[in-house]
Amino acid sequence: MGKVEDSIPDEEWERFLREAEAGTKGAPEEPSARARMVARRLREEAGPPQPWRSHQPARRRGGKAWYAVGLLVAAALLVVALDPGRVAGWFGGGGGDGGSAPLTAESRRPEQPPPTEPMAQLPTISHPFRGSPAVRWADGTAGIGMPEARATGWMSKAQLARALEKSRDFLAASSLDPGVLRGERPGKAIALINPHQRDVKEYLANAFRAPSRKNDPLLLFSRFDTGKVRLVGDVVKVRGRITYREGDRGAVEVTTDVTYVYPVAPAAAGIDEVARTIVRREVVMSWDDPAKVVVDPGTFSLISYKVDTGNSDCDTFTGYFTPRFSADLATSPPRNGPEVDPYDRSTSIEKRMREGCGTATRS
Questions:
Q1: The model's pTM
Q2: Domain carrying residue 28
């Protein structure tokens, strides 16, 4: 994906946009990606700072009016660094999985991280979520809080309800599908993305052919190398929520902020040690008005996507998560980054990402 060319200074773009809003003659109806990014910043006067790793590619226009979405691609990866002597201190108390009442669906950002129990209980093949807050989380998409649909932007209540369902379908196809988790191409998820976003199309092609820091499939999809690890059981614990608002040109902008907990074990036979990789993703989708935007029916445009991961190497770009186990941790040098609770959803993902690669306090 190409770099945005900053050929025009910010102050000139800001002056142009203010004049356009005031009705200046000759102002184009379709601003470029650069203009739309500046417009977003002007609307959100106290918007969040840029994350520690980001990219904003240019847009190409032609034919029917193109919708220039300022695409933000960002990733912040946490790696778990363990002192083997402190392993037991990571895990909370309680009995087997499900010993406590399950949590109700999340409808807003929590005010504090989940508590840590004093008793130590390690996960097992039979109880892979034991000792973690995820033991009280729901399974799969049941853990995603859904808002009530109401007529918004160009959509009726019924249309918006369908868009919310399809947004959740994308999360399931990208982060919960068993085949995708085992490394298969996420065809069902990709089919829901507007194919007329050329930069996104190029990213997807490169991400699976030659994964790299810039083109990392883990930004949108959860994948494990089954030659190195195996998924434990068929349950992924999930907690998060979906929200929406009216976006540009009457579009419906849907934001998904969801944490997934994947239990894994080494692929080698006879090793039953269980670790967990915790993945928090925020994906912002634009369900565009087809009368105003080039979009295939039933697809959304990507506005931004971010990922923050616990127990996966920060500097490895193989296209798969790289969970660590006790043997790896015993020989790894300590990390110098900040300590972070990967289960803490009380902090915005933007704030977490500014801290960079650090050390998870629990798994």
A1: 0.78
A2: 10-43
Same domain, yes or no: 182 and 248? yes
Kindly report the three-state secondary structure assignment for every residue of the chain: CCCCCCCCCHHHHHHHHHHHHCCCCCCCCCCCHHHHHHHHHHHCCCCCCCCCCCCCCCCCCCCCCCCCCCCEEEEEECECCCCHHHHHHHCCCCCCCCCCCCCCCCCCCCCCCCCCCCCCCCCCCCCCCCCCHHHHCEEHHHHEECCCCCCECCECHHHHHHHHHHHHHHHHHHHCCHHHHCCCCCHHHHCCECCCCHHHHHHHHHHHHCCCCCCCHHHCCCCECCCCEEECCCCCEEEEEEEEEECHHHCEEEEEEEEEEEEEEECCCCCCCCEEEEEEEEEEEEECCCCCCCCCCCCEEEEEEEEEEECCCCCCCCCCECCCCHHHHHHCCCCCCCEECCCCCCCCHHHHHHCCCCEECCC
Q: Would you say residue 3 lies in a domain?
A: no
Specify whether 20 is located in the same domain as 121: no
Classify residue 321 by burial, with Cβ atoms within 10 Å: 0-12, 13-18, 19+. buried
Together in a domain, 273 and 350? yes
Report the number of distinct structural domains present in the chain. 2
Together in a domain, 175 and 124: yes
Collect the ranges in the chain with pLDDT lower than 50.
1-8, 13, 16-17, 19-41, 45-71, 73, 75-96, 98
163: tokens are: 């868009």
Is residue 28 domain-shared with residue 91, that is, in the same domain? no
Would you state the pLDDT for residue 361?
Answer: 87
Q: In the prediction, which pLDDT does 56 show? A: 31
